[in-house]
Amino acid sequence: MAPAQGGADAARSVAIIMDGNGRWARRRGLPLLAGHRAGTRALRRTVEAAPDLGVRSLAVYAFSTENWGRSTDEVEGLMELFAETIREQFPDLHRQGVRVRFVGRRDRCTPELLELMRDMEGRTAENQRLDLWVAFDYGARDEIVNAARRLVEDGVAAAAVDEHAVAARLYAPEMPDPDLVIRTSGELRMSNFFLWQTAYSELHFTARLWPDFGAEDLQEALDEFVTRRRRYGRR
Question: Is 19 a catalytic residue?
């Protein structure tokens, strides 16, 4: 995607690192899964608010390749919650015109979850109000390694390897590079999230825990974005 010239326009493509579910639950003396469940409600609020705020592409970090290292109980609970969210929440987003795509590995999904993901992608394929990219079993380094492996498998000559050749072999080549990346919970790092695609994204960090995030927080981040000057290495 070619960068806009001059000052920043409104952010049309936004990515969110949804962080803070565990801390939200612990502060309330609740089990971890309660925090993750509250996080799904925050996701729905944010997805529903995004189009009216001018956002056309929204990518969210749902489950990373490193998250498999969490406790068995938490991982199993997350998998069940993820399937439940697709069954119970995403159909209404479909009715609202949201196109859903899942970005990441698929070889470690259960057959049931994989079928739910495929079905939702198929059902929402023609929707145009908002593109929702759900990064699931996703890691940026894993994605780049996979792209390099595909270059070799495709027999691409070394001299022909350029940014376009690599980008074409990412998990979702058609996903626009984020104009803006938001991270909640006060942490100041990227956590292996879309490292290729966010090379020139603007970053917004908020102390708000993800389950408390909503339309006003998204608006605040978008308002800050338009005050930035994006130079892409130029003066």
Answer: yes
